[in-house]
Amino acid sequence: MRSSLAIVFIVLAMIGCKPSVPSEYIQPGDLEDILYDYHVAQAMANETPQKDGRENGYHKNAYFQSVLRKYDVSEAEFDSSLVYYYSHADRLKKIYEQVKERLNDDAKALGASVGDINKYSAYSTTGDTANVWQNETDLLLTPLPTSNRYDIYVKADTSYYKGDTFMFQFMSDFIYQSGSRDAVVCLVAKYENDSTTQTISHVSMTGQTQVRVPQNREGTLKELRGFIYLSNNDRNSDIRKMLFISQIQLIRFHSKEKNNEAKSSVSTPADSLSGAPNASRNNTDTIRRGTLQRDSGKVLPLRKGTPFHRMDQQPLKVNRK
User: Fold this and answer.
1) How far is residue 309's CA from residue 307's CA, in Å, rounded to a whole number?
2) To the nearest 10°, the Cα dihedral for 167, 171, 177, 181?
3) What Cα–Cα distance (Å) separates residue 128 from each residue in 132, 160, 161, 225, 289?
4) Who wins on pLDDT, 212 or 265?
5) What are phi and psi of 151, to 5 degrees?
6) What value does the mean pLDDT of the chain take?
7) Does the pLDDT of residue 262 top 70, yes or no?
């Protein structure tokens, strides 16, 4: 009995304990602070007056080194820690989500606007302008074969129409030690008339990226496929390279032709003054005909500017036999 209880406690302890980061690497909380200050430092470097790109690179590296000195971490320790987190991408993604949340909170506290990429966040999946993206909105890419590509797939439904246009957009954050930054976004739109369009865009800068799918007036979108791929032009896997993508959205815009069709299909109330069917059959349409029919059979012309209730004030003469 005692042995059974001991086994149960051991199993519960194993389930409750989460694997920790080895002590030789930067711990998650410390790495979050370093990455947060890293982005603040990079923003400061971008605001520093510069004469050419080399000077900007010098400032960025100087600010980065100051961040490492602040936390008493060497560049080698920082790079080796990132290599470890490469193999634990889920942890690194959670850390970066916290960093982005802190940066966004700081921006709001300083009165920054939400920006163009967030202006569609309040839209539902229906309407003339809608965010139809229903997959994950944040992801982390590294040069490793298992985490250097994210596949895109969107299946259309009955809310899609001919002439719709689409815009795939997101925010990108590069953290690179060396090498050229290059991520490829490919979108292939397939329509019900079996036509396809392909759009390819390269991402090399931190900030907002927008990829537009051209309009197709002949067919309705059937599905949208594609991928985001982080290329690696350096075989050295010990060099820090990662791309954090956040706020992914796919905005669908209905065409103006579709809106005009919807408006023209709406019936308007019948106008009794224009001889509409819902007008009373017993009343003569005096304004349209320009005459007034009296019971005596005599047709009297309308006098210009004379109100209806004051017309023909003279008594009618009736011939009696």
Assistant:
1) 6
2) 10
3) 11, 10, 10, 22, 44
4) 212
5) -90, 140
6) 74
7) no
Write the CA distances from 44 to 47, 55, 97, integer angstroms: 5, 13, 21
In this structure, the number of other CB atoms found within 10 A of the CB of residue 144 comes to: 16
Distance, CA of 100 to CA of 96 (rounded, Å): 6
Q: In whole angstroms, give the CA distance from residue 232 to residue 127.
A: 40
Pairing of strands 196-203, 183-191: antiparallel
Residue 208 structure tokens: 């907002």
Separation of alpha carbons 132 and 157, rounded Å? 10
Q: Which residues pair with 189 in a beta bridge?
A: 197, 224
Q: Is 101 strand, coil or helix?
A: helix
The structure tokens listed for 110 are 């300083």
Dist. CA 129–CA 169, nearest whole Å: 14
How many angstroms separate the CA atoms of 159 and 89, rounded? 36
315 Rama sector, left if φ>0, alpha if ψ -120 to 50, beta otherwise: beta
pLDDT band, very low/low/confident/very high, at 150 (cuts 50, 70, 90): very high
Evaluate whether 313 touches 291 at the Cβ level (below 8 Å).
no
Torsion of CA 13, 15, 21, 27, to 10 degrees: -90
Is the alpha carbon torsion for 91, 66, 182, 99 positive or negative? positive
What tens digit of pLDDT does each residue of 13-70 get? 444 455 689 999 999 999 999 989 988 887 777 676 665 545 556 777 788 889 999 9
